[in-house]
């Protein structure tokens, strides 16, 4: 797209927003900026970096006057009445992923795109790692940390062999032309229901990752994913429950591709059965862009995994402590519990984002000695789990919950921090929550 002299408003001034300002100014667009909560200090910072940048706060409508294109950060829903009216009047709304799609359409590199309620950061990191280890010039960006346009500008427009993108439903809402060579929806479970009408509405946003003609990688065990199959497209299925293109043979614990043996689940350095599914998805994506299986299987066994995703932090008197602070929704916590074989004490709670916690009842059955509840939505979780046959206790702090969990646990058990909630009621983010957990463990 030719951005020269286009009147563009960038709304939302976090990492994605700032990268859009930098990119669009560099392309000659007339850029202004908006944030509903723009502090004087933040405005000063922005104007130091972008001299003369018009900045707006308060009413979005005032900022939209004379604007042709609204470049939206993922944190803002385009269903906001002012934005819906702007579109109705012929204004164009897009985000950084759609801008990147236009740039990559002019280059020859491959695109691997990954979304899902759970596991997407692990699969993105693993797929990126495998591409790098196989010798490809690889960019890993998106929801995983580096905004995509920042990554693009860092390269000075130099093409990459492959872009590996983690995409949230928010980023996909206004992404229409990505056309990934291989794309995956790993699973769909309740998340962000404070933004979407219902689970189906949320799934529709995820499904936009398949716009284009590339290979679809889908979870055969997930009813929503099964419904995303598109006719005339190559589909690769992965499963923990049944034979598929990529699957785990129940009795043997072997990962397989059709009838071909790949490796033992025990040879994967990642904890938990759900990570076997993540490995299968990453293998499917990497093979779909032409990487050789023998190389991939060799490198899978050297991938260390991610901090705060079912990560063992230590052991005391036979009790293992596992940090899954990045488990910020019910599906993630369900997967973490299901993937661990030992009896456990679960620490959960925080900001629940409107979720239903009842699916945890089945996951906890015959597995948990107790659930210790923290944070703002502890009463809601307690109400949803009441009568599930597992003792429920409230703790005022995470430190208190760690001490209580250690009292309850027996040698051979696991203490699992997997909150199923966002962290901002008590912490600066999930990494801060993990840090407090680790410090409380070390203080035992």
UniProtKB/TrEMBL annotation:
Give its E.C. classification number.
6.3.2.9
Q: Where is the Mur ligase central domain?
A: 114-285
UniProt keyword annotation of Nucleotide-binding present: yes
Q: Which domain of life is it from?
A: Bacteria
Annotated GO molecular function terms are: UDP-N-acetylmuramoylalanine-D-glutamate ligase activity
Q: Which family does it belong to?
A: Belongs to the MurCDEF family.
Q: Does the keyword Cell division apply?
A: yes
Q: What class of enzyme is it?
A: ligase
Its predominant location is cytoplasm
What InterPro entries does the record point to? Mur-like_cat_sf (IPR036565), Mur_ligase_C (IPR004101), Mur_ligase_C_dom_sf (IPR036615), Mur_ligase_cen (IPR013221), MurD (IPR005762)
Pathway(s) of this molecule:
Cell wall biogenesis; peptidoglycan biosynthesis
Instruction: Name the chemical reaction catalysed here.
Output: UDP-N-acetyl-alpha-D-muramoyl-L-alanine + D-glutamate + ATP = UDP-N-acetyl-alpha-D-muramoyl-L-alanyl-D-glutamate + ADP + phosphate + H(+)
Mur ligase C-terminal domain boundaries: 308-421
Cleavable signal peptide: none
Alphabetically ordered keywords of this record: ATP-binding, Cell cycle, Cell division, Cell shape, Cell wall biogenesis/degradation, Cytoplasm, Ligase, Nucleotide-binding, Peptidoglycan synthesis
Q: What does this protein do?
A: Cell wall formation. Catalyzes the addition of glutamate to the nucleotide precursor UDP-N-acetylmuramoyl-L-alanine (UMA).
Localization, UniProt: Cytoplasm
UniProt name for this protein: UDP-N-acetylmuramoylalanine--D-glutamate ligase
Q: Which residues bind ATP?
A: 116-122
- Species assigned in the record: Uruburuella testudinis
């Amino acid at each position: 797209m030719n951005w020269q002299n286009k009147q563009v408003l960038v709304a939302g001034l976090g990492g994605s927003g700032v990268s859009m300002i930098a990119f669009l100014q560099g392309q000659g667009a007339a850029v202004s900026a908006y944030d509903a909560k723009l502090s004087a200090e933040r405005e000063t910072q922005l104007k130091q970096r972008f001299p003369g940048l018009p900045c707006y706060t308060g009413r979005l409508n005032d900022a939209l006057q004379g604007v042709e294109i609204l470049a939206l950060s993922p944190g803002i829903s385009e269903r906001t009445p002012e934005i819906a009216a702007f579109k109705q009047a012929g204004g164009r709304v897009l985000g950084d992923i759609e801008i990147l799609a236009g740039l990559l359409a002019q280059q020859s590199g491959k695109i691997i795109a990954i979304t899902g309620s759970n596991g997407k950061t692990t699969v993105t990191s693993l797929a990126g790692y495998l591409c790098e280890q196989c010798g490809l010039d690889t960019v890993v960006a998106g929801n995983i940390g580096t905004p995509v346009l920042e990554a693009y500008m860092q390269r000075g427009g130099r093409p990459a062999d492959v872009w590996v993108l983690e995409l949230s439903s928010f980023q996909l809402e206004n992404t229409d032309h990505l056309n990934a060579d291989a794309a995956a929806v790993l699973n769909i479970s309740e998340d962000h229901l404070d933004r979407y009408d219902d689970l189906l509405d949320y799934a529709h946003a995820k499904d936009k990752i398949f716009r284009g003609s590339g290979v679809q990688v889908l979870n055969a065990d997930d009813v929503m994913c099964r419904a995303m199959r598109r006719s005339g497209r190559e589909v690769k299925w992965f499963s923990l429950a049944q034979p598929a293109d990529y699957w785990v043979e129940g009795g043997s614990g072997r990962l397989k591709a059709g009838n071909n043996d790949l490796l033992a689940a025990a040879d994967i350095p990642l904890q938990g059965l759900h990570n076997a599914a993540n490995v299968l998805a990453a293998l499917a994506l990497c093979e779909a862009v032409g990487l050789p299986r023998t190389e991939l299987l060799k490198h899978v066994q050297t991938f260390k995994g991610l901090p705060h995703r079912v990560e063992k932090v230590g052991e005391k008197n036979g009790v293992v402590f596992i940090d899954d602070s990045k488990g910020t929704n019910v599906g993630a916590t369900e997967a973490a519990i299901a993937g661990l074989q030992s009896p456990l004490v679960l620490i959960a709670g925080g900001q629940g984002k409107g979720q239903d916690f009842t699916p945890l009842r089945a996951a906890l059955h015959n597995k948990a000695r107790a659930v210790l509840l923290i944070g703002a939505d502890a009463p809601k979780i307690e109400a949803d789990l009441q009568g599930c046959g597992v003792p429920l206790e409230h703790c005022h702090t995470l430190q208190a919950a760690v001490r209580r969990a250690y009292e309850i646990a027996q040698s051979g058990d696991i203490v699992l921090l997997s909150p199923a909630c966002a962290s901002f009621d008590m912490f600066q983010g999930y990494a801060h929550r993990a840090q407090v957990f680790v410090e409380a463990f070390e203080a035992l």
